């Protein structure tokens, strides 16, 4: 066995320490693993890059405003 193979066999916690790291990103920017619904106001992709167009704003009017 080479020295590298012996070192890896003797210290298995070294690989675990290398994988553990802190992530400072905003967790609210991402969906959680169990979040399967679209949520209020979310609509299936319309292909416009997520921008809110005129159709979206018109759909947000309260119902008592009429057409």
Automatic annotation (TrEMBL):
Region: Disordered, residue numbers: 1-67
Domain of life, source organism: Bacteria
Biased composition (Gly residues): 42-53
Biased composition (Polar residues): 1-13
Record-given protein name: Uncharacterized protein
Species this protein is from: Streptomyces kaniharaensis
